[in-house]
Amino acid sequence: MTRTLRIATRGSALALAQTGMIAAELTRLTGVEVQISVVTTEGDTSRASLASIGGTGVFASALRAVLVAGEADIVVHSLKDLPTAAYPGLLLGSVPAREDPRDALITRDGVTLDELPEGFRVGTGSPRRVAQLLSLRPDATVVDIRGNVDTRLAKVSSGELDAVVLAAAGLTRLGRLDTVTEFFDLALWPTAPGQGALALEAREEDSIPELALIQHADTRLSIAAERAVLAALEAGCTAPIGASASISAEGGADILTLTAVVYRADGAEELGSERSVRLAGGVAGAGAGAGPAGSGAAGATGSLAAGLLQSGLIDGTDVFAAQLDQAEALGAELAAQLLDDGAAELAELGARS
Ligand SMILES: NCc1[nH]cc(CCC(=O)O)c1CC(=O)O
Fold first, then answer.
1. Is residue 196 within 6 Å of ligand 1 at its C-beta?
2. All domains of the chain, ordered by start, with CATH?
3. Backbone angles phi, psi at 337, to 5 degrees
4. Measured from the CB, is residue 166 less than 6 Å from ligand 1?
5. Name one GO cellular component term (predicted).
6. What is the atom index within ligand 1 of the atom nearest the CA of 167?
7. pLDDT tens readout for residues 117-137
Protein backbone atom coordinates (compact mmCIF):
# COMPACT_ATOMS: atom_id res chain seq x y z
CA MET A 1 0.00 0.00 0.00
CA THR A 2 1.27 3.46 -0.82
CA ARG A 3 2.00 5.58 2.21
CA THR A 4 -0.13 8.72 2.50
CA LEU A 5 0.93 11.92 4.27
CA ARG A 6 -1.73 14.42 5.30
CA ILE A 7 -0.62 18.03 4.91
CA ALA A 8 -2.54 20.99 6.31
CA THR A 9 -2.19 24.53 4.99
CA ARG A 10 -3.86 27.90 5.07
CA GLY A 11 -6.22 28.54 2.19
CA SER A 12 -4.75 31.73 0.69
CA ALA A 13 -3.61 31.53 -2.92
CA LEU A 14 -0.01 31.84 -1.73
CA ALA A 15 -0.35 29.11 0.91
CA LEU A 16 -2.03 26.78 -1.59
CA ALA A 17 0.64 27.44 -4.21
CA GLN A 18 3.54 26.76 -1.85
CA THR A 19 1.93 23.70 -0.28
CA GLY A 20 1.16 22.33 -3.74
CA MET A 21 4.83 22.70 -4.69
CA ILE A 22 5.97 20.93 -1.52
CA ALA A 23 3.45 18.12 -2.04
CA ALA A 24 4.59 17.60 -5.63
CA GLU A 25 8.24 17.57 -4.55
CA LEU A 26 7.56 15.07 -1.75
CA THR A 27 5.79 12.75 -4.17
CA ARG A 28 8.48 13.14 -6.82
CA LEU A 29 11.33 12.41 -4.41
CA THR A 30 9.81 9.72 -2.23
CA GLY A 31 6.76 8.31 -4.04
CA VAL A 32 4.61 9.11 -1.03
CA GLU A 33 0.98 10.08 -1.65
CA VAL A 34 -0.07 13.46 -0.29
CA GLN A 35 -3.47 14.67 0.88
CA ILE A 36 -3.89 18.41 1.35
CA SER A 37 -6.45 19.93 3.69
CA VAL A 38 -7.18 23.63 4.14
CA VAL A 39 -7.44 25.27 7.56
CA THR A 40 -9.19 28.62 7.89
CA THR A 41 -7.53 30.85 10.48
CA GLU A 42 -8.77 33.95 12.26
CA GLY A 43 -6.12 35.84 10.38
CA ASP A 44 -7.89 34.89 7.14
CA THR A 45 -11.45 35.74 8.17
CA SER A 46 -10.97 38.75 10.45
CA ARG A 47 -10.56 42.21 8.92
CA ALA A 48 -9.13 43.50 12.19
CA SER A 49 -5.49 44.53 12.19
CA LEU A 50 -3.12 41.64 12.70
CA ALA A 51 -1.66 43.24 15.80
CA SER A 52 -5.10 43.33 17.49
CA ILE A 53 -5.73 39.60 16.99
CA GLY A 54 -2.33 38.45 18.15
CA GLY A 55 0.10 39.25 15.35
CA THR A 56 1.07 37.01 12.46
CA GLY A 57 1.24 34.15 14.99
CA VAL A 58 -2.52 33.70 14.52
CA PHE A 59 -1.85 31.97 11.22
CA ALA A 60 0.54 29.50 12.80
CA SER A 61 -1.61 28.76 15.87
CA ALA A 62 -4.58 27.39 13.96
CA LEU A 63 -2.36 25.13 11.86
CA ARG A 64 -0.50 23.89 14.92
CA ALA A 65 -3.77 22.99 16.63
CA VAL A 66 -4.64 20.74 13.69
CA LEU A 67 -1.28 18.99 14.02
CA VAL A 68 -1.59 18.51 17.78
CA ALA A 69 -5.10 17.10 17.30
CA GLY A 70 -3.70 14.50 14.91
CA GLU A 71 -5.78 15.74 11.98
CA ALA A 72 -2.70 16.17 9.80
CA ASP A 73 0.86 14.80 9.76
CA ILE A 74 2.60 17.92 8.46
CA VAL A 75 1.73 21.59 8.24
CA VAL A 76 3.37 24.02 5.85
CA HIS A 77 4.02 27.53 7.14
CA SER A 78 5.74 30.54 5.66
CA LEU A 79 8.76 30.45 7.94
CA LYS A 80 8.70 34.16 8.63
CA ASP A 81 5.20 33.84 10.10
CA LEU A 82 6.27 31.08 12.49
CA PRO A 83 7.01 32.29 16.06
CA THR A 84 10.55 31.50 17.25
CA ALA A 85 9.42 29.89 20.53
CA ALA A 86 9.31 26.09 20.44
CA TYR A 87 5.83 24.60 20.54
CA PRO A 88 5.31 21.68 22.94
CA GLY A 89 5.07 18.38 21.08
CA LEU A 90 5.96 19.83 17.67
CA LEU A 91 9.20 20.28 15.81
CA LEU A 92 10.53 22.01 12.74
CA GLY A 93 10.74 18.86 10.64
CA SER A 94 12.13 20.30 7.45
CA VAL A 95 13.15 23.52 5.74
CA PRO A 96 13.19 23.22 1.94
CA ALA A 97 15.31 25.38 -0.38
CA ARG A 98 14.50 29.04 -0.01
CA GLU A 99 13.08 31.30 -2.71
CA ASP A 100 14.50 34.80 -3.27
CA PRO A 101 14.53 36.38 0.24
CA ARG A 102 14.47 39.99 -1.04
CA ASP A 103 11.70 42.55 -0.79
CA ALA A 104 10.40 44.01 -4.02
CA LEU A 105 8.75 47.31 -4.94
CA ILE A 106 5.70 47.39 -7.19
CA THR A 107 4.72 50.69 -8.81
CA ARG A 108 3.08 51.76 -12.07
CA ASP A 109 5.09 52.47 -15.22
CA GLY A 110 8.40 51.08 -13.98
CA VAL A 111 8.98 53.94 -11.51
CA THR A 112 11.67 53.23 -8.87
CA LEU A 113 11.64 54.24 -5.18
CA ASP A 114 13.91 57.23 -5.94
CA GLU A 115 11.63 58.41 -8.73
CA LEU A 116 8.29 58.28 -6.91
CA PRO A 117 6.74 61.75 -6.46
CA GLU A 118 6.98 63.70 -3.20
CA GLY A 119 4.51 62.35 -0.62
CA PHE A 120 3.73 59.21 -2.64
CA ARG A 121 1.34 56.69 -1.09
CA VAL A 122 2.87 53.29 -0.30
CA GLY A 123 1.07 50.34 1.30
CA THR A 124 2.51 47.87 3.80
CA GLY A 125 1.50 46.41 7.15
CA SER A 126 5.05 45.59 8.23
CA PRO A 127 6.79 47.91 10.75
CA ARG A 128 10.14 46.81 9.32
CA ARG A 129 9.14 47.84 5.80
CA VAL A 130 7.68 51.11 7.10
CA ALA A 131 10.99 51.99 8.77
CA GLN A 132 13.03 50.95 5.73
CA LEU A 133 10.81 52.97 3.39
CA LEU A 134 10.90 56.07 5.61
CA SER A 135 14.63 55.79 6.03
CA LEU A 136 15.11 56.17 2.26
CA ARG A 137 12.05 58.34 1.59
CA PRO A 138 11.03 60.29 4.73
CA ASP A 139 8.36 62.05 2.63
CA ALA A 140 6.43 58.83 1.93
CA THR A 141 2.83 58.48 3.09
CA VAL A 142 2.62 54.96 4.48
CA VAL A 143 -0.79 53.30 4.38
CA ASP A 144 -1.36 50.28 6.66
CA ILE A 145 -2.80 47.56 4.46
CA ARG A 146 -3.69 43.91 4.84
CA GLY A 147 -4.98 41.29 2.49
CA ASN A 148 -3.57 38.79 0.07
CA VAL A 149 -0.97 39.49 -2.57
CA ASP A 150 -3.47 40.02 -5.40
CA THR A 151 -5.50 42.51 -3.35
CA ARG A 152 -2.33 44.47 -2.64
CA LEU A 153 -1.19 44.49 -6.25
CA ALA A 154 -4.66 45.68 -7.32
CA LYS A 155 -4.35 48.75 -5.07
CA VAL A 156 -1.42 49.88 -7.21
CA SER A 157 -2.94 49.15 -10.61
CA SER A 158 -6.17 50.91 -9.59
CA GLY A 159 -4.28 54.01 -8.48
CA GLU A 160 -5.42 53.79 -4.84
CA LEU A 161 -1.74 53.50 -3.92
CA ASP A 162 1.42 54.48 -5.81
CA ALA A 163 3.43 51.53 -4.53
CA VAL A 164 3.47 48.40 -2.40
CA VAL A 165 6.38 46.41 -0.99
CA LEU A 166 6.04 42.63 -1.10
CA ALA A 167 8.28 39.61 -0.71
CA ALA A 168 9.76 38.52 -4.04
CA ALA A 169 9.21 34.91 -2.91
CA GLY A 170 5.45 35.24 -2.68
CA LEU A 171 5.29 36.93 -6.08
CA THR A 172 7.42 34.18 -7.59
CA ARG A 173 5.24 31.42 -6.17
CA LEU A 174 2.12 33.14 -7.49
CA GLY A 175 3.65 33.77 -10.93
CA ARG A 176 3.44 37.56 -10.44
CA LEU A 177 7.14 38.44 -10.49
CA ASP A 178 6.52 40.44 -13.68
CA THR A 179 4.87 43.17 -11.57
CA VAL A 180 8.15 44.06 -9.81
CA THR A 181 9.82 47.36 -10.65
CA GLU A 182 12.73 47.15 -8.21
CA PHE A 183 14.39 44.55 -5.97
CA PHE A 184 15.98 45.81 -2.76
CA ASP A 185 19.52 44.63 -2.10
CA LEU A 186 19.70 42.55 1.10
CA ALA A 187 22.84 44.37 2.26
CA LEU A 188 20.87 47.64 2.39
CA TRP A 189 17.45 46.20 3.05
CA PRO A 190 17.65 42.96 5.08
CA THR A 191 14.28 41.23 5.25
CA ALA A 192 12.32 39.34 7.88
CA PRO A 193 14.07 36.35 9.46
CA GLY A 194 13.09 33.33 7.38
CA GLN A 195 11.57 35.33 4.52
CA GLY A 196 11.34 33.27 1.35
CA ALA A 197 11.66 29.97 3.22
CA LEU A 198 9.00 27.46 4.22
CA ALA A 199 8.69 25.46 7.43
CA LEU A 200 7.35 21.94 7.53
CA GLU A 201 6.22 21.29 11.07
CA ALA A 202 5.43 17.81 12.43
CA ARG A 203 4.71 16.03 15.70
CA GLU A 204 7.78 15.21 17.78
CA GLU A 205 6.64 11.63 18.35
CA ASP A 206 6.25 10.85 14.63
CA SER A 207 9.00 9.67 12.37
CA ILE A 208 8.60 11.04 8.86
CA PRO A 209 11.82 10.17 6.99
CA GLU A 210 10.47 11.85 3.83
CA LEU A 211 10.93 15.24 5.48
CA ALA A 212 14.70 14.95 5.49
CA LEU A 213 14.72 14.43 1.75
CA ILE A 214 13.27 17.84 0.96
CA GLN A 215 15.35 19.74 3.46
CA HIS A 216 17.99 22.15 2.16
CA ALA A 217 20.97 22.38 4.51
CA ASP A 218 22.10 25.90 3.52
CA THR A 219 18.62 27.29 3.98
CA ARG A 220 18.17 25.61 7.34
CA LEU A 221 21.46 27.00 8.62
CA SER A 222 20.73 30.50 7.32
CA ILE A 223 17.28 30.70 8.87
CA ALA A 224 18.61 29.28 12.15
CA ALA A 225 21.00 32.25 12.36
CA GLU A 226 18.32 34.77 11.37
CA ARG A 227 15.76 33.43 13.84
CA ALA A 228 18.33 33.36 16.63
CA VAL A 229 18.63 37.14 16.30
CA LEU A 230 14.89 37.54 16.69
CA ALA A 231 14.76 35.15 19.63
CA ALA A 232 17.66 36.81 21.45
CA LEU A 233 16.19 40.28 21.00
CA GLU A 234 12.89 38.84 22.19
CA ALA A 235 11.31 40.65 19.31
CA GLY A 236 8.00 39.52 17.91
CA CYS A 237 7.31 38.88 14.26
CA THR A 238 6.18 42.48 13.83
CA ALA A 239 9.33 44.09 15.24
CA PRO A 240 11.23 46.48 12.96
CA ILE A 241 14.15 44.11 12.49
CA GLY A 242 15.74 42.77 9.36
CA ALA A 243 18.06 39.76 9.39
CA SER A 244 19.49 38.02 6.35
CA ALA A 245 22.06 35.22 6.25
CA SER A 246 23.73 33.38 3.42
CA ILE A 247 26.44 30.80 2.89
CA SER A 248 29.38 31.20 0.56
CA ALA A 249 32.31 28.98 -0.25
CA GLU A 250 35.72 30.47 0.43
CA GLY A 251 38.85 28.48 -0.14
CA GLY A 252 37.24 25.13 0.56
CA ALA A 253 35.37 26.31 3.63
CA ASP A 254 31.72 27.26 3.95
CA ILE A 255 31.19 30.66 5.53
CA LEU A 256 27.88 31.66 7.07
CA THR A 257 27.40 35.44 7.02
CA LEU A 258 24.62 37.18 8.91
CA THR A 259 23.49 40.81 8.61
CA ALA A 260 20.94 42.30 10.99
CA VAL A 261 19.51 45.78 11.40
CA VAL A 262 17.22 47.15 14.12
CA TYR A 263 15.22 50.21 13.03
CA ARG A 264 13.55 53.01 14.91
CA ALA A 265 9.88 52.91 13.90
CA ASP A 266 10.15 56.14 11.89
CA GLY A 267 13.25 54.95 10.04
CA ALA A 268 15.25 57.98 11.21
CA GLU A 269 17.77 55.82 13.04
CA GLU A 270 19.06 52.31 12.66
CA LEU A 271 21.63 50.02 14.15
CA GLY A 272 23.17 47.29 12.04
CA SER A 273 25.90 44.72 12.22
CA GLU A 274 27.38 41.83 10.27
CA ARG A 275 29.18 38.69 11.42
CA SER A 276 30.52 35.53 9.83
CA VAL A 277 31.49 32.09 10.99
CA ARG A 278 33.42 29.34 9.27
CA LEU A 279 31.20 26.28 9.43
CA ALA A 280 32.54 23.11 11.01
CA GLY A 281 33.29 20.38 8.52
CA GLY A 282 32.67 22.70 5.61
CA VAL A 283 30.02 20.45 4.15
CA ALA A 284 26.95 22.59 4.24
CA GLY A 285 26.51 22.74 0.48
CA ALA A 286 23.33 22.23 -1.48
CA GLY A 287 22.39 19.13 0.37
CA ALA A 288 19.25 17.44 1.45
CA GLY A 289 19.27 16.37 5.05
CA ALA A 290 19.14 13.16 6.94
CA GLY A 291 17.30 12.16 10.06
CA PRO A 292 13.61 12.23 10.88
CA ALA A 293 13.92 15.44 12.84
CA GLY A 294 15.04 16.99 9.60
CA SER A 295 18.42 17.32 11.17
CA GLY A 296 19.59 17.68 7.63
CA ALA A 297 23.00 16.27 7.11
CA ALA A 298 25.27 18.09 4.80
CA GLY A 299 25.06 17.09 1.23
CA ALA A 300 27.92 18.94 -0.29
CA THR A 301 30.01 17.46 -2.99
CA GLY A 302 33.72 17.56 -3.35
CA SER A 303 34.92 18.61 0.08
CA LEU A 304 37.00 16.43 2.34
CA ALA A 305 34.21 16.26 4.87
CA ALA A 306 31.76 15.25 2.17
CA GLY A 307 34.06 12.38 1.30
CA LEU A 308 34.31 11.36 4.93
CA LEU A 309 30.56 11.51 5.14
CA GLN A 310 30.13 9.33 2.12
CA SER A 311 32.60 6.77 3.44
CA GLY A 312 30.76 6.69 6.75
CA LEU A 313 33.88 7.82 8.65
CA ILE A 314 31.97 10.72 10.13
CA ASP A 315 28.30 10.97 10.98
CA GLY A 316 26.64 13.68 8.89
CA THR A 317 23.94 14.25 11.46
CA ASP A 318 26.55 15.21 14.05
CA VAL A 319 28.33 17.55 11.65
CA PHE A 320 25.08 19.23 10.77
CA ALA A 321 24.01 19.50 14.42
CA ALA A 322 27.33 21.22 15.15
CA GLN A 323 26.77 23.62 12.24
CA LEU A 324 23.27 24.42 13.48
CA ASP A 325 24.72 25.24 16.90
CA GLN A 326 27.21 27.57 15.21
CA ALA A 327 24.44 29.27 13.25
CA GLU A 328 22.36 29.85 16.38
CA ALA A 329 25.39 31.09 18.30
CA LEU A 330 26.17 33.54 15.48
CA GLY A 331 22.66 34.98 15.68
CA ALA A 332 22.74 35.21 19.48
CA GLU A 333 26.16 36.93 19.44
CA LEU A 334 25.06 39.44 16.85
CA ALA A 335 21.90 40.20 18.84
CA ALA A 336 23.95 40.64 22.02
CA GLN A 337 26.18 43.10 20.20
CA LEU A 338 23.18 45.06 18.89
CA LEU A 339 21.81 45.24 22.45
CA ASP A 340 25.21 46.43 23.69
CA ASP A 341 25.11 49.12 21.03
CA GLY A 342 21.70 50.31 22.25
CA ALA A 343 19.16 48.47 20.09
CA ALA A 344 16.64 48.38 22.94
CA GLU A 345 16.54 52.18 22.96
CA LEU A 346 15.72 52.29 19.26
CA ALA A 347 12.92 49.78 19.05
CA GLU A 348 10.47 48.14 21.43
CA LEU A 349 12.12 44.84 22.26
CA GLY A 350 11.41 42.32 24.97
CA ALA A 351 15.13 42.16 25.66
CA ARG A 352 16.90 44.93 27.56
CA SER A 353 20.59 45.44 27.58
N1 LIG B 1 3.56 38.48 5.98
C2 LIG B 1 2.82 37.72 5.04
C3 LIG B 1 3.69 36.83 4.21
N4 LIG B 1 4.18 35.69 4.71
C5 LIG B 1 4.93 35.07 3.73
C6 LIG B 1 4.88 35.86 2.61
C7 LIG B 1 5.50 35.49 1.31
C8 LIG B 1 6.97 35.44 1.27
C9 LIG B 1 7.68 34.43 2.10
O10 LIG B 1 7.52 33.21 1.92
O11 LIG B 1 8.47 34.86 2.94
C12 LIG B 1 4.10 36.99 2.88
C13 LIG B 1 3.75 38.10 1.98
C14 LIG B 1 4.77 39.21 1.95
O15 LIG B 1 5.44 39.50 2.93
O16 LIG B 1 4.89 39.84 0.88
1. yes
2. 4-99+194-205+215-346 (3.40.190.10), 103-183 (3.40.190.10)
3. -65, -40
4. yes
5. cytoplasm
6. 16
7. 999 999 999 999 999 999 999
